[in-house]
Amino acid sequence: MSKIAIMGAGGKMGCRLTDNLMKHGTDHVLYLVEVSPSGRNSIAQRGRQVVDEDEALSQAEVIILALPDRVLGKVASSIVPRAKAGTIFITLDPAAAHAGEMPERSDVSYFVTHPCHPNVFDHFATDEERNDFFGGVHARQAIVCALMQGPEEHFNLAEGLAKQFYGPVTRSHRITVEQMAILEPTMAETCGIALVRALREVLEEAVRRGVPRAAAEDFMYGHIKVELGIAFGLAPFPFSDGAQLISGWGQQHIFKEDWLSLFEPSSVKQQTEMIVRG
């Protein structure tokens, strides 16, 4: 039986994790720590009680830091020195770990994990699955995991927990913290969200110029699917000659020539530092 403390248990991620770990109630003892009144109310609605931070630290074998990036380092600097030797600390995002926010202590383990979220190309049988955009409720998803420091058996234990609190999980990818930071923020947020927001902007521009919204949305959503399929090699046909030509011309006008320098290690480090420090 694992003794697990969840810091920030009443927040959005804390509640998601608590709900899923409660499904495995006989496997775990949960110590839920939350300071905000709204978060405490969310825990009470789940029929659970908040515990004192000191009690959680004295009992927990695993401590999950379900906290916003900007406060995670500050909280970690307070609780890591007070935890028992051999404690496994789990963070749900690589930003704080990659930015050097986790305190130095050699006798504890640091494990980082993040959901991949439901695959846009996956097949979902029910409306509940299709409408679970984040994952971890109805829709299945893959996850990524990294052992920043600690013994191998701690990776296996923490990965097993991650499969439970992110479940249903299709597969788990073991990577490094540095590789996880390349995936997020750089690939998925710095670039991915910027590009997706640009698609929303061009849809709104088409509407502003007189295209009926329903027509613009149907056209955009359908083309997103076929273009993703072709670009990622999943559709059994290529872009047309005209599409190849005009998209290349578009890239020259939209993107800076050196935009992929965002993936250089120094830039990735800068991005994680911006997230945790503002």
Give a description of the structure.
Strand 6, helix 7 and strand 7 (169-174) form a beta-alpha-beta unit. The chain is built from eleven helices and seven strands. It has two domains: 2-175, Rossmann fold (3-Layer(aba) Sandwich), CATH 3.40.50; 182-277. Helix 8 (177-208) runs antiparallel to helix 9. The protein is of the alpha/beta class and 278 residues long. Helix content is 50%, strand content 15%. The model has no long low-confidence stretch (mean pLDDT 96). Strands 2-1-3-4-5-6-7 form a seven-stranded mixed beta sheet, sandwiched between helices.
Low-confidence stretches: none
The total tally of domains equals 2
Distance between the termini: 39 Å
Could you name the CATH class of the largest domain?
Alpha Beta
Query: Could you say which structural class the secondary elements and strand pairing correspond to?
Result: alpha/beta
**Global outline:** globular
Strand portion: 15-25%
- Tell me about the largest β-sheet: 7 strands, mixed
Summed up, the helix count is 11
- CATH fold name of the largest domain: Rossmann fold
Q: Which percent bin holds the helix content?
A: 40-55%
CA-atom Rg in angstroms = 21 Å
CATH architecture classification name of the largest domain: 3-Layer(aba) Sandwich
Q: Give the integer mean of the pLDDT values.
A: 96
CATH homologous superfamily descriptor of the largest domain:
NAD(P)-binding Rossmann-like Domain
The number of E-state strands comes to 7
Give the topology string: H per helix, E per strand.
Answer: EHEHHEHEHEHEHEHHHH
Widest beta sheet: strand line-up: 2-1-3-4-5-6-7
